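Below is how a single chain appears once it has passed through the pipeline. First comes the sequence as given, then the structure the pipeline wrote out for it. We keep one example in the README because the format questions we get most often are answered faster by looking than by reading.
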Amino acid sequence: MKKIINTPEGYTDDMLRGIYASHPDKVTYAAGDLRCYCSANKKPGKVAIVTGGGTGHLPLFLGYVGDGLLDGCGVGGVFQSPSAEQIYNVSKQVETGAGILYLYGNYNR
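Resulting structure:
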């Protein structure tokens, strides 16, 4: 199967623009940064859950943001981690006063 990509440099942001346009009632972004991907529906009293990762060949974690799952994630470029600032901005956007649980993976093995 072939992929339609406008430019390699714009792949991540183009993908995110498409997701935001398709699901404006479900997801939004923080601090004017498309890569600060957040649930559009805060739940007061819920411990927020945040993760992050690179877009890579399988940007699977984006699909985990939603009802009963993650509240937000930082989105890095292809095979790049998100920045600390992106994780901070996601955290500010999704936090409701009950704290934040950060999930992360190990890129080593």
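Strands lie at 27-30, 33-39, 48-54, 72-76, 100-102.

See the next section for the split statistics.
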